Amino acid sequence: MATLSLPNHTLPFLLPSQIPKTPTLSSLPLVSKSSHSQFYGLTFSSSQSLPLPLHSSSFSSPKKSSIVAKVSKGQVPPNFTLKDQDGKNVSLSKFKGKPVVVYFYPADETPGCTKQSGQACAFRDSYEKFKKAGAEVVGISSDDLSSHKAFAKKYRLPFTLLSDEGSKVRKEWGVPADLFGTLPGRQTYVLDKKGVVQLIYNNQFQPEKHIDETLKLLQTL
């Protein structure tokens, strides 16, 4: 092996027969972009980076569930226009100027709606008290018009039932589901004359209590 002398340095000088084979790309360390290294006082700079194997999931983020609005006490909820059991369009705004009770329920003919002291029948039996308080009662579920019509007729319901097919209004109002999201929630809202929410009551398994709570509040409006 020969030597090559430079100022302040002595570098080994290999004869051609002693030059090692050029290493393969896979054996070289990866150099990141704009990295610098020093070798015997000489600076080497890399202007490019070798591609790194990346898994596609490295850039993927977990899917987020759709965020829905949530109506809170003291707010004016989003307006809606839905068809009632007679096929007529009914808008929430038409009730402005009087208190209105809007109750969301899972479906027609569910036990919580129809059994003795169930929600729909309890609203029916106390309907005169709601009228005396000057309030309107509106029930909303995702059932279609024919289901609502049969339901209202069978149980002689004197108030409005609205068809929210696709649960659009339920989502806009942020009505929570029960039983780990498998059962549409049973939630009641009481709006005052200005359309402002004054009460939100949720009780899936004691539906008759919705009536007690709403009447109690209506007496204070």
Task: Describe the protein's topology.
Blueprint: E1 2-6, E2 9-13, E3 36-39, E4 42-45, E5 81-84, E6 89-91, E7 100-104, H1 111-114, H2 119-125, H3 127-132, E8 136-141, H4 145-154, E9 160-163, H5 168-173, E10 187-191, E11 197-202, H6 209-218
Parallel strand pairs: 7-8, 8-9
Antiparallel strand pairs: 1-2, 3-4, 5-6, 5-9, 7-10, 10-11
Protein described:
- The chain is of the alpha+beta class.
- The chain contains 6 helices and 11 strands.
- Strand 5 (81-84) and strand 6 form a beta hairpin.
- The longest helix is centred in the C-terminal third of the chain and has 10 residues, at 145-154.
- The radius of gyration is 36 Å and the shape is globular.
- The termini are far apart.
- Mean pLDDT is 77; it is low at 25-50 and 52-68.
In short:
The protein is 19% helix and 23% strand.
Q: Key features?
A:
221 residues; alpha+beta; 7-stranded mixed sheet; two-stranded antiparallel sheet; 6 helices
Q: For the CA atoms, what is the radius of gyration?
A: 36 Å
What is the helical fraction, as a range of percent? 10-25%
From the helix content, strand content and strand pairing, which structural class follows?
Answer: alpha+beta
User: What is the beta-strand fraction?
Assistant: 15-25%
Strand order of the largest sheet: 6-5-9-8-7-10-11
How many beta-strand segments? 11
Low-pLDDT windows of residues: 25-50, 52-68
Sheet with the most strands, sense and barrel status: 7 strands, mixed
Mean pLDDT: 77
